[in-house]
Amino acid sequence: MLFKVEMKVNLPTDMPAEVAAEIKAREKAYAQGLQEKGKWRHLWRVAGSYANVSIFDVEDNAELQDLISNLPLFPYMDITVAPLCRHPSSIHEDDR
Ligand SMILES: O=C(O)C[C@H]1C=CC(=O)O1
């Protein structure tokens, strides 16, 4: 199942820089691991903001919830999720 996930990061302004850097490093490793597994299919920066638009490819809603809630930045993000389905005009056979 494909989901569009939008994440906006809101780190507290008083968070020490080294704490923020450590969380971001863990987030990067986690995100890259999920990309290597094919679970996090697309990861795009929204230009001009500390936000991303992502496409997740998961078995079900429960797996999406599990993956997202384990993001190291999860406590500091506003997240919106939308389910996706194949567009009838798509030429990409793997869009399902
Ligand atoms: O930078 C972000 O958009 C937040 C988050 C998503 C992946 C990652 O490495 O950090």
TrEMBL record:
<dbReference type="Pfam" id="PF02426">
    <property type="entry name" value="MIase"/>
</dbReference>
<comment type="pathway">
    <text>Aromatic compound metabolism; beta-ketoadipate pathway; 5-oxo-4,5-dihydro-2-furylacetate from catechol: step 3/3.</text>
</comment>
<keyword id="KW-0413">Isomerase</keyword>
<dbReference type="InterPro" id="IPR011008">
    <property type="entry name" value="Dimeric_a/b-barrel"/>
</dbReference>
<comment type="similarity">
    <text>Belongs to the muconolactone Delta-isomerase family.</text>
</comment>
<keyword id="KW-0058">Aromatic hydrocarbons catabolism</keyword>
<dbReference type="InterPro" id="IPR026029">
    <property type="entry name" value="MLI_dom"/>
</dbReference>
<dbReference type="InterPro" id="IPR003464">
    <property type="entry name" value="Muconolactone_d_Isoase"/>
</dbReference>
<dbReference type="GO" id="GO:0016159">
    <property type="term" value="F:muconolactone delta-isomerase activity"/>
</dbReference>
<feature type="domain" description="Muconolactone isomerase">
    <location>
        <begin position="1"/>
        <end position="89"/>
    </location>
</feature>
<protein>
    <recommendedName>
        <fullName>Muconolactone Delta-isomerase</fullName>
        <ecNumber>5.3.3.4</ecNumber>
    </recommendedName>
</protein>
<comment type="subunit">
    <text>Homodecamer.</text>
</comment>
